[in-house]
Specification:
heterotrimer; A mainly alpha (218); B mainly alpha (313); C mainly alpha (486); B: 313 residues; mainly alpha; 11 helices; globular; C: 486 residues; two-stranded antiparallel ribbon; 19 helices
């Protein structure tokens, strides 16, 4: 594949990633958000495969595969399992109205593009629009984590945020060293597991949702 | 590059759109019925309904003014005029000054406005309610449509639909810029709103809690109602045609009869794809509460804005 | 030898953690705990000698230089004292039912896993490994914070894991950006190794490094407890079991500071020192200012100490922000001093809380009458935290101040001084009320030996560092300062 084709495909995938991110921000039900983040991870895996074909970097294939298995399949499945099996609430329970979050997300996207447009030659080290899209994804993921009360939505935000970082990391010339990426994925899995256990523990020991815990102040 | 479209062709296309509008509705209804494991009415049912309506007499509310009677005709005229702006058989700008995509949106908005005015004029409670709801949603939809048009127009350097369509070229996704994906996504989100379908509106019901567009038609009857219904069929196909012109590839550039036939087939295929999409959405989603609609349309807004940002930044 | 030690060092707590899983007996577990920490301590001393003699060493993704050594020494000293403290603390906690006797092994295993991840953060040369280990600390310590399993503990743990994970994703993004800048310069030989990036740092694209540094600053700053990202800190510090609080406050937030310092050196080389210093200065000032009102009105003893950590992390950031050899030396010294003193304060507070059965400072009265040694140590810790001479924190705060005056940051100095004076008054007021007065709600019991031993050790170090800094440690600090300032 020529460099232009790769760049075009990465840009297109970036647009689709932004679309899934918008769906996550706008989702009013947890299960929708989970589907959206699974789709997002799937797109990340495709991006990995495209970049692997283009650069001939075997590590990227591994990363794409791991992303597909873990982040696009396993983690969403676990989240769905928690939603279905445990008696957790299914609405996302925003702290501020969803419309306001959407407006903030727009601001984030525009700011990200503006920021990376101000960068100089180093943009060449990162394919296409991966940098602004990555920044936008990361920041919107954080936005979701900060503006939702329910535990599972916060986890979805975390995954989205992580996806943004991965997207940028993949698009850096050569990608990050394999061992680091694997380590990062492992950490994400562990964090997800610990969070899931906490959700279940809160449910079983104090019979409440994480969103109900708001006593610590001052 | 393609040639210009002569006036005969434009008129032919306009007539085609008006004639085929009910067919699209019929097709969607049939597909929905099949998806819900029903037999459903025949595809030509909308034509029969129209024929029936045009045969009937007119009854009018005592509170309605004389203006009320002219509303259906004006609405239909505005919608049909909008239809003239959509390229059907071939891409390419018209050979004479006609109007562009913004004109099209303006005409559709005018039709919407007239419908709402008519509903208020009749003085019925449901009409007023439907109109006020419609007017709540319209300001959320129209700017976004405008932004989607702009996001493609920026690349093509024109807002004329025929030229936009020609600029799109023959290769489809391969040629899409990142902004096109987001613009298309925004369009898909808005499509049910613009065509008055689930999850924004429900075309099948006359239940006062759910209806938007249908509420405004309650006071019309006979040929007047026929005009209104025909206008909404036309509006639907025009909107689909707008999406097709903005985002779908063109098949033939030529001006010969064979090329026109191929173009007609291609257009039918594009409309078919979008109609299937609408039927699928209608079958798989529930109607949103009215207060949730702005949030849903917000998705479209953000997508369109992002698409525009991608183009400009 | 030193190279071998580099990879043996993280293994020691890991192996200890695994060994913990084999038994359920409290005495054996405590023995393993102290033993593992002592081995770690001894090995670190050997490593310190090697580094003092032969300079920085590296193997694979690990590397030790004098900068890392400062933090490593703090880490092992606190780990050892925490282990000693835990012996007596645990006996009491099991007796009153705060800790379940049957689940002790998982507690010990987690503590050592936590220590292992912190050792890796200190030793990591590869910035990716640094991040992975940092996230590892989050995961292990989150479980520890919620260990008591009651409502507040779980809430604090959830808040902690969410806030720090948000933060740390910023950190990873910053890391990726810096890596992208390095890959741009180095081409296909791109690497995430800090020492390798430092060699090309002056040629990195300043624009992207600047954005990267801000991301890292927010990311690791969250973990370090810098305001306004400190939201998790008072909750976590107050709800965690006392030994864990001491580790969190004494070591963990310092590890995050080390990560910030590593990136600061890169940023300083790529876009000039002024930019990084300005960012640090702003965050430092915000932290000092934000912490003050909460310290004044606080009623929960452990929360008070938590907010105090925010203030002191702010002071460290100020020292780094004032820059220069004096500021950096002062900041590094403050890292050590605050770690030691804060652990002492948490120990003393934990003992007092256990005695009165409440964290509310209004309930703790007349400690001097019921537990004279503990009360003296608590007062000493409070005096030192408030910055009274001749204790160690006074020295490092003075150095930070001197650096600020030397570089003419008058506004920052003025704010800093006002806040320090206010906090001084507030803290002594709180401590005085607890230590003196009529004892209520607690009888005079003998004080357990192991917590006292741990506290006396720390107090000795605290006083020693206040009176004179040992020449060997001074050497390490000086060389560490050179690593940062160049």
């Amino acid at each position: 594949m020529s460099a232009e084709t790769v760049q075009a495909i990465i840009d297109d995938l970036g647009a689709l990633l932004l679309f899934t991110m918008i769906l996550i921000v706008a989702a009013s039900q947890i299960s929708r958000a989970i589907y959206a983040v699974a789709a997002q991870s799937f797109l990340i895996a495709i991006a990995g495969a495209v970049l692997a074909t283009a650069t001939g970097n075997v590590d990227l294939w591994v990363i794409a595969g791991v992303t597909l298995v873990v982040k696009a399949t396993l983690l969403p499945w676990v989240l769905h399992w928690v939603v279905r099996r445990m008696n957790v609430r299914r609405e996302v329970e925003p702290v501020i109205p969803v419309a306001a979050t959407l407006a903030l997300a727009v601001a984030v996207v525009v700011m990200s593009f503006h920021l990376s447009a101000s960068l100089g030659t180093v943009r060449q080290a990162i394919t296409g629009n991966a940098l602004p899209v990555g920044i936008a994804l990361t920041l919107s993921g954080v936005l979701v984590m900060a503006t939702r009360k329910t535990a599972l939505t916060q986890m979805v935000g975390l995954f989205a945020s992580e996806n943004g970082i991965f997207f940028t990391a993949m698009a850096v010339t050569q990608g990050m060293p394999l061992i680091i990426e694997i380590g990062v994925i492992l950490d994400v899995i562990l964090a997800a597991l610990v969070m899931t256990i906490m959700v279940l523990r809160v449910r079983s020991t104090v019979d409440a949702d994480i969103a109900d815990l708001d006593r610590l102040k001052g | 590059m393609t040639g210009e479209r002569p006036i005969e062709l434009v008129l032919l296309e306009m007539a085609l759109l008006v004639l085929l509008g009910p067919l699209v509705t019929g097709f969607i209804q049939k597909l929905k019925a099949r998806l819900q494991c029903r037999q459903g009415a025949a595809i030509v049912q909308p034509y029969r309904d129209l024929a029936k309506l045009f045969r009937k007499g007119t009854v009018q509310a005592v509170t309605a003014s004389g203006f009320f009677r002219s509303i259906p005709v004006l609405v239909l005229a505005a919608t049909v005029a909008a239809g003239a702006l959509v390229p059907v058989l071939r891409a390419g700008p018209p050979a004479f000054p006609l109007g562009d995509a913004l004109m099209l949106l303006g005409l559709l908005a005018l039709a919407r406005f007239l419908t709402a005015i008519g509903a208020f004029d009749a003085g019925g409670a449901f009409g007023g309610m439907g109109a006020s709801r419609e007017m709540t949603i319209a300001p959320l939809v129209e700017p976004v449509l405008m932004m989607v048009v702009f996001s493609t127009a920026v690349a093509a350097g024109t807002t004329e639909l025929g030229a936009l369509s020609a600029h799109r070229g023959t290769s489809w996704i391969l040629d899409w810029h990142a902004a096109d994906f987001l613009g298309f996504a925004a369009m898909l989100v808005l499509l049910p709103a613009e065509t008055g379908r689930i999850p924004v509106d429900n075309p099948d019901t006359h239940l006062e809690l759910t209806m938007l567009h249908e509420g405004m038609l309650l006071e019309h009857s006979g040929p007047g109602l026929g005009c209104m219904v025909l206008a909404s069929h036309t509006r639907q196909i025009v909107t689909l045609g707008l999406v097709a012109a903005l985002f779908f590839p063109i098949v033939s550039y030529g001006a010969g009869a064979a090329d026109l036939l191929v173009g007609a087939g291609a257009f039918a295929a594009k409309i078919l794809v979008l109609a299937v999409f609408l039927a699928l959405v209608e079958s798989s989603y529930a109607k949103l509460r009215l207060f949730r609609v702005p949030q849903y349309l917000g998705i479209g807004f953000v997508c369109a804005l992002t698409a525009l940002a991608l183009r400009i930044l | 030898m030193a190279e071998t030690l580099l990879w043996v060092l993280p293994l020691v707590p890991s192996v200890t953690a695994l060994a913990m899983l084999t038994t359920r007996k409290r005495r054996i577990l405590s023995g393993l705990d102290v033993g593992g920490s002592a081995v770690l301590f001894a090995l670190t001393l050997v490593l310190a000698r090697e580094v003092a003699a032969g300079g920085p060493r590296s193997i694979g993704v690990f590397r030790i230089d004098d900068l890392g050594l400062v933090f490593l020494l703090l880490l092992v000293v606190l780990t050892l004292t925490v282990s000693i403290y835990t012996v007596g603390w645990l006996r009491q906690a099991v007796a009153v039912g705060n800790m379940k006797a049957e689940s002790l092994r998982s507690y010990f295993a987690l503590v050592h896993a936590f220590v292992a991840t912190m050792v890796v953060t200190v030793l990591a040369d590869n910035l990716g490994v640094l991040w992975i280990a940092m996230e590892g600390t989050t995961i292990t310590s989150a479980v520890l914070i919620g260990y008591h399993g009651h409502r507040h503990g779980l809430e604090a743990a959830w808040k902690y894991i969410i806030v720090t994970t948000i933060g740390i994703s910023f950190g990873l993004f910053g890391t990726v950006l810096v890596y992208a800048a390095a890959a741009d310069v180095m081409g296909s030989a791109g690497t995430m190794s800090w020492s390798a990036i430092m060699q090309v740092a002056p040629t990195l694209d300043p624009g992207i490094v600047r954005i990267g540094f801000i991301f890292v600053m927010i990311g690791y700053g969250t973990k370090a407890g810098l305001a306004p990202m400190h939201l998790w800190l008072p909750d976590a510090h107050s709800q965690a079991p006392t030994p864990v609080s001491a580790l969190l406050s004494g070591v963990l937030i310092k590890c995050a500071l080390l990560a910030i310092i590593r990136f600061q050196t890169i940023a300083a080389a790529a876009c000039g020192p002024a930019f990084a210093e300005e960012v640090l200065l702003v965050f430092g000032l915000i932290s000092v200012v934000v912490a003050t009102p909460f310290i004044l009105v606080q009623r929960d003893l452990k929360r008070l100490l938590g907010y105090h950590s925010v203030e002191h992390v702010g002071i460290v950031a100020l020292g780094l922000g004032f820059g220069g050899a004096v500021g950096t030396y002062g900041a590094l010294l403050h890292v050590v001093n605050h770690g030691i003193t804060k652990a002492l304060a948490f120990f003393a507070a934990g003992t007092a809380i256990a005695r009165y059965g409440s964290r509310d400072m209004r309930a703790i009265r007349g400690l001097a009458a019921v537990a004279p040694i503990g009360a003296t140590l608590l007062m000493l810790a409070a005096l030192s935290l408030a910055g009274t001479p001749p204790f160690s924190i006074f020295v490092s705060e003075l150095m930070v101040l001197r650096a600020g005056i030397g570089h003419g940051h008058w506004v920052a100095i003025a704010i800093f001084l006002v806040m320090v004076v206010v906090i001084f008054a507030g803290l002594l007021h709180h401590a005085g009320a607890m230590v003196f007065g009529e004892p209520r709600g607690a009888g005079r019991r003998t004080e357990a030996w192991s917590p006292l031993l741990a506290m006396l050790l720390l107090a000795a170090i605290m006083v020693l560092m206040g009176l004179t800094i040992p020449a060997s440690f001074d050497g390490i600090l000086r060389r560490a300062t050179e690593v940062v300032v160049g």
